Amino acid sequence: MSKYASYVIKSIACNFLLCIVIVFFFLIKTSISFAGDENKNRLHIATSNLPKSFYPLSVMTTESLYTLGFALRPLTNYNSKNELVCLLCSSLPTTESQTIKEISPGQSEVILTLGTYFWGDGKPVTSEDVIFTWQVGKYKGYDFPNAGFYRHDIISIEALSDQTIKITRNKNSLHAADFSDFWILPAHLEGPLFEKNPDLYLKETNYHQNPLLPGLYNGPYVISQFSPYGLIEFKPNPYWPQTEQHPLFSKITLKSIQDGHALEMHVLNHEFDLIAPSNRLQNSQIKTIINQLQETYTLDTTPALGQEMIMINTTNTVLADKRVRRALLLGIDREKIKQVVQNSKAEIAEMYLSSLERADISKNITKVNQAGAKELIEAAGFNFNPKSKIYEKDGLPLRLTLVLESNNRLRNQIAQILQSMWGEVGIDIKITTEPHRTFFGQTLKERRFDHLLFIGWPKTPHYIPSSMFSSKSIPNEINQYTGYNYMGLANANIDNLLQKLEQSQNENNEKILWSELEESLADEVHLFLYFTQSRQKFAKKDLKESL
Description:
Layout: H1 16-29, E1 42-47, H2 62-71, E2 76-78, E3 84-86, E4 100-104, E5 107-113, H3 127-137, H4 147-153, E6 154-159, E7 164-169, H5 187-196, H6 201-204, H7 206-209, E8 221-227, E9 231-236, E10 251-256, H8 260-268, E11 274-275, H9 283-292, E12 297-312, H10 322-330, H11 334-341, H12 370-379, E13 383-385, E14 390-393, E15 396-397, E16 399-405, H13 409-423, E17 428-434, H14 436-445, E18 452-457, H15 466-469, H16 492-503, H17 507-524, E19 527-540
Parallel strand pairs: 1-10, 1-11, 16-17, 16-18
Antiparallel strand pairs: 2-3, 4-5, 5-7, 6-7, 8-9, 9-10, 11-19, 12-18, 12-19, 13-14, 14-15
Helix pairs in contact: 1-2, 3-5, 8-9, 10-12, 16-17
């Protein structure tokens, strides 16, 4: 697996990992003055959900990654221009500087030097922390979302000094400098707990038992107050390097407001300075806020890498027939869906790559074709029942369940439109909503959905999606539910193309391989892409230039 730290998954308004970089630069580089003295140097942020745990290797949600960005940092990440940058290292390894060396096809040796950073208790971030994190991440008893990165991507790590490490990894030299998946644990606090009993460690970790310990965090802020699903407060890390700009705010408060209408009222009462990207506001509510508070708030929407999609369980008896899957695709009118989204920045999408990456997404859009959809359904052995207006086979109706997260009104609205569209071609759709924890827990992680699952899927730049499309990445009990191939896609040609992409050392060759991969993925019809996600910058005007 490679470039996607906790690839999973949920409603997203901006790229997961890009959010972290945006948050970080925003928190330490802005210069803002607030109207009220009581709010000066304090920042109040509204979000839809707060994480229950801050354990870095377990994060699975947009909210978790967004929140982690205040207090923790991975080794590297991507900036707003999709350029790889150092966050905990002193400089990016390169082949030119001989800090990246190709040792065999698809394998590289990387020399990485850490910058001068400190945990919130004053202990320096060292090579020991990096090695310890790798040992925890690859431990066979854990089922971290990103376990494949630690178990398969990284072959070995050797400390050359307190600040320099040699990492051997299953990655070609073009992408070997990317360690955006690599969050760091403090070995001086977590090491003794892991060594005492690795099997009980995740229950005993300080991130669960003592989350207010400053030494758990290496970012510009540390957590000073934590109430799961309520609020989180941050204060500056007293050991933040003097070579970096000092954190601007004396206190940052994140408050969870899950209901969109309640959030709207709080914002209209001027209770928040900033709204986190993954909010529950609908476009109509945002327009209301902007109209009433246009002198105070501003909204800017830009395209993001993530995509809205429906995953198909290709191992289901009915959906194993590719003709039924393609009939579902032909029954969708994405232009109408875009009108519901009411977002001119949202591009209709069909391919995995977006126009922000390498693809011309306009040339492969499948147009709605209800007649064609019906022909495929009938070719799959279904007969139309004029009384129920639903296709049947062996006396059973063509009835599918569409699962999505509750409290996401936009997706729920789109799901109802899809239900109507598919009903017009003789497919009966039952919509099921689940709470956040259930949806991203067993339903998604353990593939406990029968037919269709509606989700927002984030991406990082240049990510080779082996963990999403390789047959080896289908989550199951044997592999402890690692990997993100929730569709159950198993295609030898796709596996081969992914392996070639992982080993490619030539950008032109990569483009050819990507084109072949997109064609193979489109032929499988294992998921439907609707539109690219967008990143909303919704904040007080004083903050606009900082976002």
